[in-house]
Amino acid sequence: MSGTAGGGVLVARRVPAAVAERAQREFGAILADHDMDAEEALAVVAEKGLAAVVTGPKVRLTAAHAAKLPPSLKLVANTSVGYDHMDAAACKAAGVIVTNTPDVLTDSTADLAFMLLLCACRRAHEYEAIMRAGWRQGFGMPDKLGIQPSGKTLGIVGMGRIGQAMAQRARGFGMTILYHNRRRLPPELEMGAEYVEDLREMLPRSQVLSLHLPGGEAGVLMTPETFGLLPRAAVFVNTARGSLVDEDALIEALKSGQLFAAGLDVFRKEPDFDTRLAELPNVFLTPHTASATVETRDAMGFRALDNVAAVLAGRPAPDPV
């Protein structure tokens, strides 16, 4: 670690250089040189009497942690939109403000989700493997055929900011857009997308299905039954949460041809994901990197520091959860 207690802030995870520079310049923050877990972070907070901690997913604050938070601690600032890695309710009940970083991941996540869609449809994993192996073998007209996404029907589950951004990208490919959401959007946000109240009615119409649900409150959404409701040879994309998917059912659907392909950025267990998925040629995989752009990671860190600045100045946090 580097830095001094100064402004009373611990940055308990590695962050981009621009974020680290601001944290030290504005708050004299203590900077971790690795991603801390909850016990390590809280020990530093207690030892130094710090008022705020900037966290990542390894800081899994449980109800047990919340019951014995250091008395100096006022704020836990997550550098992510999601905060299901911690018991936010227990922390708030203990008098500690919890914040997240909404809005800043929208474009980068939608970009990667649409990349997964294209790569799954066009067999990108297989094509790239052929080239890295040296190619040398010609292919005829019926060989290695992908699916053309242009003009297909895209079903979006979860039409928040990221779902809407995904829809906007799909419009550029002439896709018909259906969506399932807890509530229907106003027409100016739908922009021609069709609301389907019952997910089971939308699935048979979705040639491509993309998940954009926040958090894990939906439980396991994609099961043998729901995969079976999709039209045969559908394409499945997930940049939301791995917990939404029964991965045994996903693998069976990919092997049986019920799914033509899948594009996945999230998994039930990370980073120790089910490597059976990597053995399937019709899966395009990325390691939970939807937000991994310079612009977005800087924005995430800055948004967390905006919350720190507000709370330390006695103002309301901009992004309480």
UniProtKB/TrEMBL annotation:
GO molecular function terms noted in the UniProt entry: glyoxylate reductase (NADPH) activity; hydroxypyruvate reductase [NAD(P)H] activity; NAD binding
Protein name: Lactate dehydrogenase-like 2-hydroxyacid dehydrogenase
Family statement: Belongs to the D-isomer specific 2-hydroxyacid dehydrogenase family.
InterPro entries recorded: D-isomer_2-hydroxyacid_DH, D-isomer_2_OHA_DH_cat_dom, D-isomer_DH_CS1, D-isomer_DH_NAD-bd, NAD(P)-bd_dom_sf
PROSITE patterns named among the record's database cross-references: D_2_HYDROXYACID_DH_1
Keywords assigned: NAD, Oxidoreductase
CDD domains in the record: GDH
GO terms under cellular component: cytosol
PANTHER family reported for this sequence: 2-HYDROXYACID DEHYDROGENASE YGL185C-RELATED, 2-HYDROXYACID DEHYDROGENASE-RELATED
D-isomer specific 2-hydroxyacid dehydrogenase catalytic domain boundaries: 10-321
D-isomer specific 2-hydroxyacid dehydrogenase NAD-binding domain ranges (all copies): 114-290
Gene3D superfamilies cross-referenced by the UniProt entry: NAD(P)-binding Rossmann-like Domain (3.40.50.720)
Organism of derivation: Muricoccus pecuniae
